[in-house]
């Protein structure tokens, strides 16, 4: 298995990706950062040997964590991204001409610098967009002191190990709620429930205490192995009930041509299979 990387996320289950060419392998201040070329997924970014994003399937994850809350909200002007160092999340948010300002808070400058050089297709110019304000800081610190006023907050973090752990705490979620506008929406990367069900349960417990509407929605991202990935959803607003024709009108007005997102997929993503619904308190 010398030219393969075996993921180190789960104690008794792992995916492996063949390394056709190791492009970068170094330790930043916070984590071990690798990028390698894989025949199926193109360039693959891992942090501490856990797949973060790939050239081939990142569109699914980034489209579903951006277009779902932004189109459901309908008038999002200010968006906050916590994490997202590769730039893919910012790329998709900035496709919305109606979004006036994006703040992106990434703890590891090494991930940003590195992604700009080795994974430019992920950010696709987002780092040079005048609407983007990049802040290098711990998202847990930023959320504590921010003046808020965000219509959508997207937590695009690593899993709750290492620097990402603080972004799964009740304290963090409480500050995030305070940083939202009245009908603002908080969405979170919440792992693969078949393998990380406790993470989703913990987040949903916290969201149920904070928001009128607390649930999750799903999308299957091939390199987040183990079945559909869950995205936490919390809001006090009515946006989850946005009718399909309204979603369709908003979507058509954007001129965006996604590879995964459609208004029908948006609505269907909130239909939860029994084993996931059971994880919601
Ligand atoms: N799509 C990936 C996933 O679902 O696992 C996440 C991609 S993105 C690379 C994750 C980013 O979160 C990394 O750049 C990492 O440095 C950042 N991060 C981790 N902990 C953080 C924290 N406390 N504050 C801000 N950014 C953090």
In brief, what are we looking at here?
This protein is an alpha/beta fold and 281 residues long.
What is the CATH class of the largest domain? Alpha Beta
CATH topology of the largest domain: Rossmann fold
Using the CA coordinates, give the radius of gyration: 18 Å
Could you name the CATH homologous superfamily of the largest domain? Answer: Vaccinia Virus protein VP39
Instruction: Note the run of SSEs as H and E.
Output: EEEEEEHEHEHHEHEHEHEEHHH
Provide the domain count.
2
- By secondary-structure content and strand pairing, the structural class works out as alpha/beta
Strands side by side in the biggest sheet: 9-8-7-10-11-13-12
User: Which ligands does the model contain, each kind named once?
Assistant: S-adenosylmethionine
Account of the protein in words:
The chain has 281 residues and is an alpha/beta fold. The chain folds into 2 domains: 4-53, Spermidine Synthase, Chain: A, domain 2 (Roll); 58-277, Vaccinia Virus protein VP39 (Rossmann fold, 3-Layer(aba) Sandwich), CATH 3.40.50. It has helices at residues 58-73, 88-93, 109-118, 120-123, 139-145, 170-178, 193-210, 244-254, 263-268, 274-277, and strands spanning 4-6, 16-18, 21-27, 32-38, 42-47, 50-54, 78-83, 101-106, 132-136, 150-156, 180-189, 213-219, 229-235. Strands 9-8-7-10-11-13-12 form a 7-stranded mixed beta sheet, sandwiched between helices. Strand 3 (21-27) and strand 4 form a beta hairpin. Helix 6 crosses helix 7 (193-210). S-adenosylmethionine binds next to strand 6, strand 7, strand 8 and helix 5.
What tags apply to this protein structure?
281 residues, Spermidine Synthase, Chain: A, domain 2, seven-stranded mixed β-sheet, 10 helices, 13 strands, binds S-adenosylmethionine
């Amino acid at each position: 298995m010398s030219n393969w990387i075996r993921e180190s996320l789960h104690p008794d289950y792992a995916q492996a990706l063949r390394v056709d060419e190791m492009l970068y392998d170094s330790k930043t201040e916070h984590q071990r950062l690798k990028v390698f070329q894989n025949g199926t997924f193109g360039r693959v970014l891992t942090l501490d040997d856990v797949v973060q994003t790939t050239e081939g399937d990142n569109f699914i994850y980034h489209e579903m964590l951006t277009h779902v809350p932004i189109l459901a909200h309908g008038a999002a002007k200010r968006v906050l991204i916590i994490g997202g160092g590769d730039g893919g999340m910012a790329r998709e948010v900035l496709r919305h001409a109606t979004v006036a300002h994006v703040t992106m808070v990434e703890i590891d400058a090494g991930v940003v610098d590195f992604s700009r050089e080795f994974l430019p297709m992920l950010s696709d110019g987002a780092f040079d967009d005048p609407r983007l304000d990049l802040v290098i800081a711990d998202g847990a610190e930023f959320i504590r002191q921010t003046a808020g006023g965000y219509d959508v907050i997207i937590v695009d973090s690593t899993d709750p190990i290492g620097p990402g752990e603080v972004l799964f705490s009740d304290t963090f979620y409480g500050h995030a709620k305070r940083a939202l506008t009245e009908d603002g929406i908080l969405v979170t990367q919440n792992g693969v429930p078949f393998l990380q069900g406790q993470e989703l349960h913990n987040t949903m417990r916290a969201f149920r205490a904070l928001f009128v509407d607390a649930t999750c929605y799903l999308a299957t991202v091939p390199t987040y192995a183990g079945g559909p990935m869950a995205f936490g959803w919390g809001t006090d607003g009515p946006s989850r009930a946005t009718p399909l024709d309204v979603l369709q009108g908003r979507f058509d007005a954007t001129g965006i041509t996604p590879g995964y997102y459609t208004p029908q997929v948006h609505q269907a993503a909130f239909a939860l299979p029994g084993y996931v619904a059971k994880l919601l308190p």
